[in-house]
Write a structure and sequence with these properties.
Helix content is about 35%, strand content about 15%. The chain has about 425 residues and is α/β, with parallel strands linked by helices. The strands form 3 sheets. It has a 6-stranded mixed sheet with strand order 5-4-3-6-7-8, sandwiched between helices. Strands 9-12-10-11 form a 4-stranded mixed sheet. Helix 7 (about 215-225) runs parallel beside helix 8 (about 255-270) and helix 9 (about 325-340) packs across helix 11 (about 365-390). The longest helix has 25 residues, at about 365-390. It is elongated.
């Protein structure tokens, strides 16, 4: 038995007795290389819902989205399991172990048809240390088992958690919220997935549906809230593992798209009265399991260009007035046509300006110069944005003041006129 197999066997040793009966007959090798005995009358993947105790000190829900555009889900579980188990009492000192009694743990699958897979609570047979730690371990055991049965090595014909293609995180959040019933005590949600929703209230693979900027991410979240699609999380603390992380083969995202996606979910959780406590954006590694849930990749077109004075975007000194309106409009028409042809349906125009003085003088007057340039460059960006609108672009246009360029000096700190020309520009992105 390999060391990897030994580790996996140990991870399930305390879990399997709760869900399995004695096995007889032949044996088979799972996709993870684990040798297990089975026959047609015995199952490994029968996850259960346990009757809740009278007193529930805390409630924890784990939302799993093991999609094929994500990474090896086992690595994400490994990254999160210490924190998840701690909510069940896994880190309590011996003298406080009794405080773990009654802590509840639910697992929700965020596929195309989200549902709760299992709910257990820490209900030890006695008050001995072994009884309580065993109850904690067995309750926590559904964390890995649920993934392996839905999208991992335990999934096999006639013994698996059936999955439906695509991922619906909003509905999964709603199901998670329904499990948080206590009025006092900690309520926590752990989300494992990249946050790309391809089914339900928002299908991010559809044209124009992916939040490609922080502005549109916020607007999208507010629209969903207004239509009643965001569940009330009741003040629950939310911890997200892998938000924005993709495999890079089936799915790629630019840094801007990743940031916008994170902004969208931050807004959703906030509008749902939850508290996003922590995000680990790069918690996993490797390729998704061959049994991972199939989802439609999202295509996010990228458009980006820089325009300088030589491209016709030249302003009069200390002004947002173009020196040659005809040339500026021609540049705006070119941008509008290029963005529309590439499917980039929103634009951000960012302006930059030179300090106009040597580096030593700039550092002495930095606050004043930066404030002036911040206002000036935003006005210039807005002026060019209006020309793009006039040129026929109908999507959202955002104007940003990039301020002082900060790269117009020679190594000795003297002004370089060629570098100053490169500073005086607008950048147009989607």
């Amino acid at each position: 038995m390999t060391s990897r197999t030994s580790r996996k066997f140990a991870a399930f040793a305390l879990v399997l007795p709760l869900f399995l009966t004695a096995c007889v007959g032949g044996s088979q090798k799972s996709a993870d290389g684990l040798i297990v005995k089975a026959d047609d009358s015995h199952v490994y993947c029968k996850l259960s819902v346990q009757k809740s105790p009278v007193v529930i000190p805390s409630q924890t829900v784990a939302i799993l989205a093991p999609t094929d555009t994500f990474v090896d889900f086992e690595t994400v579980i490994t990254a999160s399991e210490t924190e998840v188990k701690a909510t069940l009492g896994g880190s309590l000192p011996k003298a406080q172990l009794k405080e773990a009694k009654g802590r509840e743990f639910s697992v929700v699958l965020a596929d195309g048809n989200p549902r709760m897979l299992s709910k257990l609570s820490v209900q030890p047979m006695g008050d001995a240390e072994y009884d309580i730690t065993s109850a904690i371990d067995s309750t926590f055991g559904i964390f890995r088992l649920a993934n392996n049965c839905a999208a991992g090595g335990f999934k096999r014909p006639n013994d698996q958690v059936e999955t439906k293609p695509e991922s619906n995180m909003l509905k999964a959040l709603s199901i998670a919220a329904d499990q948080l019933t206590i009025s006092t005590g900690p309520k926590k949600i752990f989300i494992l997935g990249n946050g790309i929703q391809t089914a339900g209230a928002i299908e991010m693979q559809a044209v124009g549906s992916f939040p490609k900027s922080e502005t549109t991410a916020t607007l999208l979240a507010k629209r969903l809230s207004a239509s009643g699609e965001i569940p009330d999380l009741g003040g629950a603390e939310v911890y997200w593992y892998g938000l924005g992380q993709v495999d890079g083969v089936n799915q790629s995202l630019s840094e801007k798209s990743t940031t916008s996606l994170a902004t969208f979910w931050r807004q959703v959780i906030s509008l749902g009265h939850g508290k996003l406590m922590d995000v680990c954006g790069q918690c996993g590694a490797g390729s998704a399991h061959q049994q991972a849930i199939k989802v439609t990749p999202v295509v996010v077109p990228e458009c980006k260009t820089r325009l300088y004075e030589s491209d016709g975007v030249e302003f009069k000194p200390d002004s947002a007035t173009f020196t040659n309106m005809k040339q500026a409009l021609a540049a705006a028409k070119s941008i509008s046509a290029t963005f529309k042809n590439k499917g980039c349906d929103e634009i951000a125009v960012t302006g930059y300006a030179a300090a106009g003085v040597d580096k030593q003088t700039y550092e002495k007057k930095k606050k004043s110069i930066d404030a002036t340039n911040k206002s000036l460059t935003k006005n210039r960006a807005a002026a060019f944005g209006r020309l793009i609108r006039e040129a026929g672009f109908s999507g959202p246009i955002v104007s940003v003041g990039g301020g002082t360029c900060g790269s117009e000096w020679t190594p000795s700190g003297k002004v370089d006129q060629d570098l100053q020309k490169l500073c005086r520009r607008v950048e147009v992105t989607n």
